Protein backbone atom coordinates (compact mmCIF):
# COMPACT_ATOMS: atom_id res chain seq x y z
CA UNK A 1 0.00 0.00 0.00
CA UNK A 2 2.74 2.46 0.91
CA UNK A 3 4.51 1.80 -2.38
CA UNK A 4 1.36 2.51 -4.38
CA UNK A 5 0.77 5.74 -2.46
CA UNK A 6 4.35 6.83 -3.19
CA UNK A 7 3.89 6.15 -6.90
CA UNK A 8 0.72 8.28 -6.95
CA UNK A 9 2.33 11.07 -4.92
CA UNK A 10 5.39 11.08 -7.18
CA UNK A 11 3.20 12.37 -10.01
CA UNK A 12 2.17 15.48 -8.05
CA UNK A 13 4.03 18.57 -9.27
CA UNK A 14 2.76 21.22 -6.85
CA UNK A 15 1.86 20.63 -3.20
CA UNK A 16 -0.20 23.70 -2.39
CA UNK A 17 -1.34 22.73 1.12
CA UNK A 18 -1.57 19.98 3.70
CA UNK A 19 -5.11 19.33 2.56
CA UNK A 20 -3.82 18.63 -0.96
CA UNK A 21 -1.28 16.19 0.49
CA UNK A 22 -4.03 14.32 2.34
CA UNK A 23 -6.19 14.25 -0.78
CA UNK A 24 -3.44 12.70 -2.91
CA UNK A 25 -2.59 10.22 -0.15
CA UNK A 26 -6.25 9.16 -0.03
CA UNK A 27 -6.26 8.77 -3.81
CA UNK A 28 -3.21 6.51 -3.56
CA UNK A 29 -4.83 4.44 -0.83
CA UNK A 30 -7.97 3.99 -2.92
CA UNK A 31 -5.79 2.82 -5.81
CA UNK A 32 -3.95 0.37 -3.52
CA UNK A 33 -7.26 -0.95 -2.15
CA UNK A 34 -8.07 -2.49 -5.53
CA UNK A 35 -5.04 -4.78 -5.10
CA UNK A 36 -5.89 -6.02 -1.60
CA UNK A 37 -6.81 -9.66 -1.06
CA UNK A 38 -9.45 -11.01 1.29
CA UNK A 39 -8.32 -12.74 4.44
CA UNK A 40 -9.31 -16.39 4.31
CA UNK A 41 -11.81 -17.21 7.04
CA UNK A 42 -12.70 -13.57 7.70
CA UNK A 43 -16.33 -14.54 8.30
CA UNK A 44 -15.30 -16.60 11.31
CA UNK A 45 -13.28 -13.86 13.05
CA UNK A 46 -16.17 -12.86 15.32
CA UNK A 47 -16.62 -16.47 16.38
CA UNK A 48 -12.88 -16.76 17.00
CA UNK A 49 -12.92 -13.66 19.21
CA UNK A 50 -15.75 -15.13 21.29
CA UNK A 51 -13.87 -18.41 21.78
CA UNK A 52 -10.59 -16.68 22.65
CA UNK A 53 -12.31 -14.45 25.19
CA UNK A 54 -14.08 -17.44 26.75
CA UNK A 55 -10.76 -19.29 26.93
CA UNK A 56 -9.06 -16.33 28.63
CA UNK A 57 -11.79 -16.13 31.26
CA UNK A 58 -11.24 -19.80 32.28
Write the layout of secondary structure elements.
Layout: H1 2-10, H2 18-33, H3 45-57
Helix pairs in contact: 1-2
Structure description:
The protein has one domain. It has 58 residues and is mainly α. The model has no long low-confidence stretch (mean pLDDT 86). 66% of the residues lie in helices and 0% in strands. The longest helix has 16 residues.
Order of helices and strands: HHH
The mean pLDDT is 86
Q: Report the uncertain regions.
A: none
Radius of gyration: 19 Å
Number of strands: 0
Largest sheet: number of strands, sense, barrel closure: none
The helicity comes to 55-70%
Terminal CA distance: 39 Å
Strand content: under 5%
Give the total of domains. 1
Number of helices: 3
User: Structural class from helices and strands?
Assistant: mainly alpha
> Judging from the principal axes of the Cα atoms, what is the shape?
elongated
From the structure above, extract its key features.
mainly alpha; 66% helix; 58 residues; 3 helices
Task: Describe the structure in brief.
This protein is mainly alpha-helical and 58 residues long.
